[in-house]
Write the structure tokens for this entry.
Amino acid sequence: MKKKDWQALVDHICRESVAPRLERILDRLHPLELKHEMPIQSLIRAMKTIRYIESEIRDDQDLTEIFSAKHLNRLLHDLIHGLRVVDRWIVQTGIADEIRQYHSEIVDRMEAADFPEIDVQLLRDLGYDSPEQELVLMVRRSKKLDAKFSASNSNDRWHLDFSHSIESSIEILESRCKNKDGEESIAPTKQKRKWLKGLGAICKGSAFTIVDATLLGGFWNGIVPPHMASVGAVVSITTGLGDILSGAGDLRGE
């Protein structure tokens, strides 16, 4: 498929199956409700903590030696809140099912240049020094994910279940929240690196999905070109959901 034809196809998917559903739910929200629903700053804060832990904490070191139980609890709750927003906006509206149905078509000619500029800034805010290179890696991960689930001799394509990945992630994160006595740990003793990788993927995936959902909801009119407001946003939401799915697998130790 030629790039121009691909852009037209993704734009059609957006206008027929994605944008109208988002507009309906976002239009019902009062501006104050929308502000509460937009956990971007808390996700940015959580991501910076996760990246610090990954780079500075020893594998055998207890995280409570560096962070208070309250701080670690807030990190998990921020991720849970982000996932619940994605669930309300993307899963319960049926958008996730549409993206799942057309996943191969969406990732077919996807390139880093298809992401809106706001995603580059979002990656900077999340702590990435080379956001353009991270977008390249995100595209590659999306294509690998699709290849895994669309193999001709595999039925695993039906396991491309964004809804289940969000539900299971919320359950796992809630079970890890410390109680008032700090008896639970934010991360398991074993496979701590994989767990942290999963937290980072979920955090970034949620942030991308939410930011670009508001793009399709019309909150960036006049700032983002029309093409980027349809094709680019669908590309971003698709990769965001893929990151959440991959992160959920890491949390489950898969």
Remarks:
- The chain has one domain: 3-251.
- The mean pLDDT is 84.
- DSSP finds eleven helices and no strands in the chain.
- Residues 3-251 form one domain.
